[in-house]
């Protein structure tokens, strides 16, 4: 069992163990030697050994277990075995690439050297008996991506038979925003698109049509305010303008399908100085090939839409940020009933900038990023920006989301959920601590009963958005900076 010990001198980052010896313990007796099972000895400076620690209080965990599939193997006969085949004569182990598994190979074993896994043929498929699972060890900087200007949002997407792309929502109008393509293990510039203080992109498909919608925050040179939907041209191999929609300081797009119909929802942040305006849900009209207004929903300085489904039900959560006087306001969750979204639940938030829904097993969670606490009618807190962001869990019995955990964040603007092997993680975009934009963003690991626990601290500058993505080369995190024209790709190193 792990025994916590606090030392005055921190463990050195570099330690020579040449000719070193380790004293592990004794039986406190004059005779006899120390006996027992050494469960753990991990010396791994600079890496994360936490998931390798044994947290159980049951000593039986230390015993080596026999895989269930082997427990019904017949025992050795008790009669004279001198003239009989040795035990295991009919067992055959194959090493190498995946062999055939048919009735003839039933009960044979295959050891996959590359994955360090042992598999058993059941007559048709290979069943995993022992398999190494990837674990997140540490995070390293992989690519510094110089952008057109500060980046407010990232959208990573894959176009079938074309490749992996990243659309960057850049703040400064000329030259606008940029799309990058993943080539030879790096993002390289692919296409510029004129935007007006772009806040975010949303990639979606309708049938074989591929779209990319941008949320523009500012008016264009003619004083017109609109956001644009772009369509992928297979002939030109780039995105071209498809439909313009009137928006008001748009922050975010969300695309979703309900009962076979496609929808697109925009977050309108404010109109002039009025933050209490409608955000709009558009429905795709297959006859005209255009999005048409389907429903308007009152919002307050909203930042984000998040769509999710639970069983047969569809939900849409809005992050309300500011009502003109206070950031301490309710954000709302809507449910789709009888052809429209209706209020399902209201949750008190503090300058909410993002909702992130995720599943762990059969549990459903909803995390909110609270950016700051401000109320014109209340005394100012010591720090507007050091504030809890909260994780809520769906309670099936109560038919509502209930608070599961609070995590201290610093002007949090985004949550991103991702998995590595059997482990689940949340990374937060901490953007400002009240003094500097150089603030650590944090990866939290899911640890069951303990909830999410901080596992990695990542230096970021004005962090605005996180995206997790995977390629054949591995798993990555991508973050955008709203304070400098530099975004970074981080690679997740696994063991």
Write the layout of secondary structure elements.
Elements: E1 93-95, E2 109-112, E3 117-121, E4 126-130, E5 136-146, E6 151-159, E7 163-170, E8 177-183, E9 186-193, E10 198-206, E11 209-216, E12 226-233, E13 238-246, E14 250-258, E15 261-268, E16 276-285, E17 290-300, E18 304-310, E19 313-319, E20 328-337, E21 340-350, E22 352-360, E23 363-370, E24 386-395, E25 400-410, E26 412-420, E27 423-430, E28 438-446, E29 452-461, E30 463-471, E31 474-481, E32 486-494
Parallel strand pairs: 1-2
Antiparallel strand pairs: 2-3, 3-4, 5-32, 6-7, 7-8, 8-9, 10-11, 11-12, 12-13, 14-15, 15-16, 16-17, 18-19, 19-20, 20-21, 22-23, 23-24, 24-25, 26-27, 27-28, 28-29, 30-31, 31-32
């Amino acid at each position: 069992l792990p025994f916590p010990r606090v030392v005055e001198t921190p463990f050195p980052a570099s330690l020579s163990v040449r000719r070193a010896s380790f004293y592990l313990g004794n039986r406190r007796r004059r005779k006899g030697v120390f006996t027992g099972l050494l469960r753990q000895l991990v010396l791994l400076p600079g890496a994360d050994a936490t998931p390798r620690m044994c947290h159980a209080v049951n000593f039986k965990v230390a015993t080596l277990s026999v895989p269930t599939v082997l427990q019904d193997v017949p025992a050795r006969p008790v009669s004279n075995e001198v003239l009989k085949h040795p035990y295991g004569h009919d067992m055959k182990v194959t090493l190498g690439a995946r062999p055939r598994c048919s009735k003839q190979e039933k009960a044979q074993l295959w050891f996959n050297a590359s994955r360090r896994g042992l598999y058993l043929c059941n007559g048709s498929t290979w069943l995993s008996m022992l398999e190494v699972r990837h674990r997140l060890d540490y995070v390293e900087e992989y690519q510094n991506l110089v952008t057109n200007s500060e980046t407010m949002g990232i959208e990573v997407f894959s176009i079938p038979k074309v490749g992996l792309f990243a659309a960057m929502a850049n703040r400064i109008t000329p030259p606008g925003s940029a799309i990058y393509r993943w080539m030879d293990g790096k993002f390289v510039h692919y296409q510029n698109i004129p935007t007006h203080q772009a806040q975010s992109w949303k990639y979606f498909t309708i049938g074989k049509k591929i779209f990319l919608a941008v949320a523009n925050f500012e008016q264009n040179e003619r004083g017109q305010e609109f956001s644009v939907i772009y369509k992928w041209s297979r002939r030109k191999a780039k995105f071209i303008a498809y439909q313009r929609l009137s928006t008001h300081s748009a922050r975010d797009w969300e695309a979703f399908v309900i009962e076979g119909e496609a929808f697109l929802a925009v977050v309108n942040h404010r109109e002039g100085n009025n933050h209490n305006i409608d955000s709009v849900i558009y429905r795709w009209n297959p006859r005209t090939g255009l999005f048409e207004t389907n429903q308007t929903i009152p919002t307050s300085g909203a930042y984000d839409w998040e769509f999710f489904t639970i069983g047969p039900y569809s939900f849409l959560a809005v992050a309300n940020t500011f009502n003109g006087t206070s950031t301490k306001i309710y954000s709302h969750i809507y449910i789709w009933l009888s052809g429209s979204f209706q209020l399902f639940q209201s949750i008190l938030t503090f300058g909410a900038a993002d909702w992130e829904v995720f599943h762990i097993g059969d549990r459903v969670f909803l995390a909110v990023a609270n950016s700051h606490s401000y109320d014109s009618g209340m005394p100012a807190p010591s720090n507007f920006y050091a504030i809890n962001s909260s994780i809520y869990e769906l309670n099936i019995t109560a038919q509502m989301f209930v608070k599961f955990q609070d995590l201290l964040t610093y002007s949090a603007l985004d949550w991103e959920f991702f998995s590595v092997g059997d482990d689940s993680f949340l990374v937060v975009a901490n953007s400002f601590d009240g003094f500097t934009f150089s603030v650590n963003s944090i990866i939290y690991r899911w640890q069951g009963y303990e909830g999410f626990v901080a596992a990695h601290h990542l230096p970021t500058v004005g962090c605005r958005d996180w995206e997790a993505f995977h390629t054949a080369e591995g798993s990555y995190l991508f973050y955008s900076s709203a304070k400098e024209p530099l975004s970074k790709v981080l690679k997740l190193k696994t063991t």
